Amino acid sequence: MEKRIIFPAGEEEILSLAKGDRILISGRIFCGRDAVLPRIADMIRDGSIDSAPFSLEGGLIFHTAVSRAGVGPTSSNKYEIESTMEVLSEGGIRMHLGKGALKAETARALARNHAVYAVIPPVTALLNSKTISRKAVAFPELGMEALYELEVEDYPAVIAIANGESIYGEV
What we know:
Shape: globular
Largest sheet: 5 strands, mixed, barrel
CATH architecture: Alpha-Beta Barrel
CATH topology: fumarase
Order of helices and strands: EHEHEHHEHEHEEE
């Protein structure tokens, strides 16, 4: 049975998830990858995120770019992405969505910050059909790698890391 999670989501709802849970993601989510996530992490560190035209609280970051072809996951274990996950979780992100195994230290950081990691199959056509709207909300000069906000309905995913446990093995 799949659980429906609507974003932004509450901390309790995220903490109720376990590795292996199948979920359907709906609501407003953010998209970012290599170029923009380090910038967003810097905004959290220096406090300028407080004056941003968006709020990360209870949010989800999908590790992808947004192009005319649609969206599809990129590898979450790229340094520029994985190294931002702890700071983004501290800044309010409750779920990171992408593909690939993460380091044990990242899994522990997610648990400390009450965040989870979910994986999604690379199915661009399916995800494009479940994307209701999209708009660049920060760093539009980065084109498809800007920070986008999407409205989605029923994105399918699987919880890969939750509460310090990983489907990829020992944490």
